[in-house]
Each structure stands twice: as structure tokens, then as C-alpha cells.
Design brief:
Blueprint: H1 2-21, H2 35-42, H3 45-48, H4 55-80, H5 85-96, H6 102-111, H7 120-140, E1 146-148, H8 151-154, H9 158-168, E2 184-186, H10 194-223, H11 233-257, H12 262-272, H13 277-283, H14 295-306, H15 309-324, H16 331-338, H17 343-368, H18 373-396, H19 404-432, H20 439-464, H21 472-476, H22 481-494, H23 508-521, H24 526-552
Helix pairs in contact: 1-2, 1-14, 4-10, 4-11, 4-12, 4-13, 4-17, 5-10, 5-24, 6-10, 6-20, 7-10, 7-12, 7-13, 10-11, 10-20, 11-12, 11-17, 15-20, 17-19, 18-19, 18-22, 20-24
């Protein structure tokens, strides 16, 4: 009774504070208005574009801009530095590991204020960390790449070229691949070592994920007050902003990479751009008179949320969907070693796929927004299974006269298009579950479940590599039977979530009604909540363990 009374008192106090904070008419928030009316007015796209709130969509745009620059670079730069497969796995693991920390970012921002603010100080801190980490790579290494004609074009001078190459690369880059489709690539003597590159991008990823978490929570706080007609508009607008950012910089990064100092230009741009967020974050209006819950009440509210069937049931599906979306880990090696795809072509696959995911968001916004979530997931899963199975035709060489690059491009683009359609319903579902007072931890917990599921999916795809021989040498010798079998297996696994679609409600309204009914009746599930929390926490620790092992014992 004491705990419930304290919880009710804090919620009442929070509502009183909201009523003094939200004002639909004055950016200065100088006089109190009814909290629900004013908060609803703040849950519109036009309001977050106001100078006092534009830091929210700007944060999403900035995430897209810097990820477009960095991901296109990471996709090919390690190959030109001669990174082994184990080193590439290490870089990928370190880049993704901070996504497991979102729950901790949310917990800290909920409970530790800086100058009375909960979100913007950590957003500012995240962007500064990301900039400084990339500047350290720039300062400590030479990011130029010398490109010369291939041996066929170099003729009798190939021996002198090899001598020049061997004297210019460091031990870390001694295995560098000489050809990348544009001739020979010669890293400088002071090229960044893989430990420097991995540590730099690890810290960079921490900063970006911290800022991204704060942006997510700020949107979640406002999206709860959207009307039924506008529900999902804020998330769609913000994630479209991210997609626009990535669509702008990813092609520029791919083109710039071909310049002699391309990596230098890319990292410089990625480190300078976040500085433009500083004045917007400082100008952002954030409530400063917030009194956080006590630790006991806070944990009680978080547990009440996780033990609700309206939470653990749909989140269970989202987690399983992410885990079972198992990719073919040998696919990129097949494209590069067997089909001879160049780094530019691999980057083109990345860029077009990101663009199709963007169009998937647009299609959901204007065509599918009123459709049942269950049917969106069922249709997407089955359609993905069809196009994933088409990869088997590419492995067998049946492309119907279409070039392998265009055929592979179509497969990847359609699958990302489907994921783009499904992404917004997932985010709207997560926002609908966020309770007041613990927005940071709860929303970060939900998104962490999705991110950790993806990391476990990558780990599972790595385990599947051991079933058949899909090594580079075997595929280059013409034995693609293992590749074909692995493609069939991963396609079958990707269709399995269709069995569990019943766990997802048809719409946000149905989910909110279920959540409200359970709160009013205090009808919770101890077992369901315990299973959900335990699986997520164990998955987080396992994902961190896998990332650490990939760093210190590559190929374990």
C-alpha cells in the first residue's frame, strides 16, 4: 500500500509539473495550461520544428548523416587495409556493442539530472564523444590511400610496385588485398592499425547511441499524447529524417572514398557535423523542475511495466523476430570472391538498400498506416522468404540474363524495403508501452530488446557457418553446395516468426486498451515478466561477451 501510494503521489506530482511546463501558445512556457491539451499540441510535427524543439528531428537527421558517412567507409576501408575476416568481425562487433548500453543510458537520464535537465546534457555529451573519437583517428594516423593501375596495366614495373608496397605498409596491414576493382591500393606507412580503428569506432558508436537514445526518449515522451488520427506521425517524421540523412551522405561517402585522401575527408566530415547540434541542444526547451522517483518506486514502476501482458507478449514477438532474422554470413564473401564484386559495388548495395528502406517508411505512412500490424508482419515475412530464396538462383547461376550485380541488388533492396515497412509499426508499438516517469529506462529497454535480438541473430548466423564448408577457398574452387544449403536454411529460419504473429495486437488502440485494462485491474503476470526480463538481460550480457571475445580471441 505504501509503495502504491508513493507511486500515485509521484504520478500526480508529475502531472502538475507537466501542466506548468507545456504551453501551446508561448515558447517561453510562461504560464500554466491544461497539461493534456498542451502536451497534445506538443505532439505534432509543426511543434517539434519550432526552434525551441528542432533539436529532436535534427538529432535523427544527424544520426543518419554520420552513419551514412561512417558505414560506407567501414564497409570497404578495412578490406583495403588488409584486415583479416576476424578483424572485420571485431570491428563490426565493437561498432554494434554500444547498442546494448541503451538501457543504461535510459536509466541514467531518468535519474541523474545535469543542471536540472534529464535528456539534452546526455545528447550533447554523446555528440561530443563521437566527434572527439573520430578526431583521434585523424590525428594519430595517415588516412590517404594511393591508387595505381593493376599489374596487367603496370606491365614490367610490377616488381618495383610490389617493392614499393612492401616498404610502405605496416605489419598490421601486411595482408592488404592489392586489388579492389580500381587497380592496386597502397596504404601509407602510418595507416591506421586495426586496434586504433576498432577502438576509435567503438567510442564513436557509444557517443552516437547515447545521443540517439536521448532523441528516442524525447520523441516517446511526446508521442504518448498524439491523437488517434495522428498516432505514429512523430516517429515516422523523425525516422524519415534519419533516412534522408543517410541517403544524402552514404553516396557521397562512397564517391569520396575513391579520392586519394577519401577516408580523411569522410572522417573529418563525420567529426565536424555533430558540432552543429550544439546550439540547437542549448536552445532546446526541456523541463527543469522534474523530481525523479525514488529508487524503490522507480523499480516498482519498471517491474509493473515489464510484468504486463501488454508488454511482454508483443515484446516477446519483437525479440524472436529479430533473433530469427538470420542472415547468410557467407553472402558478402560470395559476392566478393566468387562474383567479383568491387568495393564500389558492395557500397552500392548498401546505399540502394538504405534508400529502399526509406521508401518502405514512406509507403507505410501514406498507404499502410491503417492496416493491421499482424497482416503487415505476416505479409513482410512471407515476401521476404520469397526474395531470400531467390538468392539461391544467384548461387546456382540462374539469373535469366540479368547481371549478377543487378540480381543481387534487387534481392537486398526488396528485403530492406520490407524491413522499412515493418519498422514504424514496431516503433509505434514500443512507444505505446512507455509509462510516465520512467520513459528513458522503459523505452531504452524495449529498443535494447530489438537491438540485442539483432546481435544474437548475427551470432547465430556465425554458428551456422560451421555446418557446411563455405570458406573462401572452397567457393573459389567452384564448390557452392555449402552456400546453397546455407541459403536454404537461413531462408527457412527467417520465415519462422510467422508462427508467433498472434502475439502482436492488430493496432495501437488495441494495445493501449489492453494495457489500460491491466493497469486498472492490476492484473500482472509474474512468470511472463520474469521470463521477458531474464531473457533480455542474459541476451545483453551474452552480446557483450561475444563482442569482447571477438576482440581478444578472434575466430573463437
Amino acid at each position: 500500500e505504501i509503495e502504491l501510494s508513493a507511486s500515485a503521489f509521484n504520478r500526480s506530482k508529475l502531472q502538475q509539473q507537466e501542466s506548468h511546463d507545456y504551453d501551446a501558445t508561448s515558447p517561453s512556457m510562461s504560464h500554466p495550461v491544461d497539461d493534456e491539451v498542451a502536451a497534445a499540441n506538443h505532439a505534432t510535427i509543426s511543434t517539434i520544428l519550432h526552434l525551441d524543439h528542432v533539436a529532436i528531428p535534427s538529432c535523427y537527421l544527424m544520426v543518419g548523416l554520420v552513419q551514412g558517412l561512417a558505414y560506407a567507409l567501414i564497409n570497404v576501408y578495412p578490406l583495403d587495409l588488409g584486415a583479416t575476416e576476424a578483424q572485420q568481425t571485431t570491428l563490426s562487433s565493437l561498432k554494434g556493442m554500444p547498442s546494448c548500453f541503451k538501457i543504461f543510458f535510459g536509466l541514467i537520464s531518468d535519474n541523474v539530472t545535469v543542471f536540472g535537465r534529464r535528456r539534452t546534457p546526455y545528447m550533447l555529451m554523446g555528440w561530443l564523444i563521437s566527434s572527439l573519437s573520430l578526431l583521434s583517428i585523424i590525428a594519430l594516423s595517415d588516412l590517404s590511400l594511393k591508387r595505381v593501375p593493376s599489374h596487367a596495366e603496370y606491365g614490367d614495373d610490377s616488381s618495383s610496385l610490389n617493392e614499393s608496397y612492401s616498404t610502405n605498409v605496416t605489419e598490421d596491414n601486411s595482408n592488404s588485398t592489392l586489388t579492389n576493382g580500381n587497380g592496386l591500393v597502397i596504404p601509407p606507412k602510418n595507416a591506421p592499425s586495426m586496434p586504433l580503428l576498432c577502438s576509435g569506432f567503438f567510442v564513436w558508436s557509444i557517443g552516437v547511441w547515447m545521443a540517439d537514445t536521448m532523441g528516442d526518449v524525447l520523441v516517446a515522451e511526446r508521442a504518448k499524447f498524439e491523437t488517434e488520427r495522428d498516432r505514429g506521425n512523430l516517429q515516422i517524421f523523425c525516422y524519415l529524417s534519419r533516412g534522408v540523412g543517410m541517403a544524402l551522405t552514404a553516396p557521397l561517402s562512397a564517391l569520396c572514398y575513391n579520392l586519394q585522401n577519401g577516408p580523411f575527408y569522410i572522417l573529418t566530415a563525420a567529426s565536424v557535423l555533430p558540432i552543429f547540434m550544439v546550439p540547437l541542444i542549448i536552445r532546446f526547451h526541456e523541463r527543469t523542475n522534474f523530481t525523479p522517483y525514488t529508487a524503490r518506486v522507480y523499480c516498482g514502476e519498471l517491474w509493473r511495466t515489464c510484468s504486463s501482458r501488454a508488454v511482454w507478449q508483443p515484446m516477446g514477438f519483437i525479440f524472436m523476430y529479430a533473433v530469427l532474422f538470420v542472415s547468410n554470413s557467407a553472402w558478402r564473401e560470395f559476392l566478393k570472391s566468387v562474383l567479383g564484386f568491387t568495393p564500389n559495388q558492395l557500397n552500392a548495395l548498401l546505399i540502394v538498400s538504405a534508400g529502399m528502406a526509406f521508401f518502405g517508411l514512406v509507403l507505410y505512412k501514406f498507404v499502410l498506416m491503417r492496416c493491421s500490424w499482424r497482416w503487415i508482419f505476416i505479409g513482410g515475412i512471407l515476401l521476404n522468404g520469397v526474395f531470400s530464396s531467390l538468392q539461391l538462383l544467384l548461387v546456382k547461376g540462374y539469373t535469366f540474363g540479368i547481371s549478377p550485380f543487378v540480381f543481387a541488388l534487387g534481392d537486398d533492396a526488396v528485403m530492406d524495403f520490407i524491413l522499412g515497412i515493418q519498422y514504424i509499426p514496431t516503433i509505434v508499438l514500443l512507444v505505446s508501452l512507455v509509462p510516465e516517469g520512467i520513459e528513458g529506462a522503459s523505452y531504452a529497454l524495449f529498443t535494447t530488446s530489438l537491438n540485442v535480438g539483432g546481435i544474437l541473430s548475427d551470432a547465430l548466423s556465425t554458428v551456422l557457418l560451421r555446418i557446411w564448408d563455405v570458406s573462401k577457398d572452397t567457393m573459389q574452387e567452384g564448390d557452392l553446395s555449402g552456400m546453397a544449403n546455407l541459403t536454404i536454411l537461413t531462408t527457412a529460419i527467417q520465415t519462422m516468426p510467422a508462427i508467433f504473429v498472434w502475439m502482436v495486437p492488430h493496432s495501437a488502440e488495441e494495445l493501449i486498451q489492453l494495457n489500460n485494462d491491466e493497469r486498472n485491474n492490476d492484473n500482472r503476470s509474474l512468470i511472463g515478466g520474469m521470463v521477458y526480463v531474464t531473457v533480455v538481460l542474459l541476451s545483453i550480457f551474452y552480446a557483450i561477451f561475444v563482442s569482447v571475445m571477438n576482440v581478444f580471441h578472434p575466430g573463437w
